[in-house]
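Researcher: We're teaching a course module on how sequence relates to structure. For the next exercise, students receive a sequence and then see the predicted structure as tokens, so they can try to spot secondary structure elements on their own. Here is the exercise chain.
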Amino acid sequence: TTDKVAESQLIMGWRTPSYAQDAKTGRILDILQEVLSGGASTRLYQDLVVKQKIATSISLNYDGDTRSGATLWLSAVPAPKVNLKTLEKAIFTTLAHAEKTITPAEIRAAI
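Model: And here is the predicted structure for the students to work with:
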């Protein structure tokens, strides 16, 4: 027999303007997505997976190609023995820190 193991996942979404509604905000959200979650060297992955080791994966995705409102999605898988509340708190802490410390070099690399 094959044992099935359930894995917890944290998924959050925020309603945002689409490109059709607000192209400037859409572009900013695309850049933000790339800076925070565009690979293994980015803020969310480095802080939560590599340094704190409280997540095994994390991603941010802006889906702005709709005619009406879009969504910015965040999904993360907690590391073993880490509960979703702990992971959620760490994500918001990392996002708050990033809001104050994103550099022009990170933005240029994301464009």
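Model: If you want an answer key for the exercise: Residues 33 and 60 are 6 Å apart (CA to CA). The beta strands are 10-16, 55-63, 70-78.
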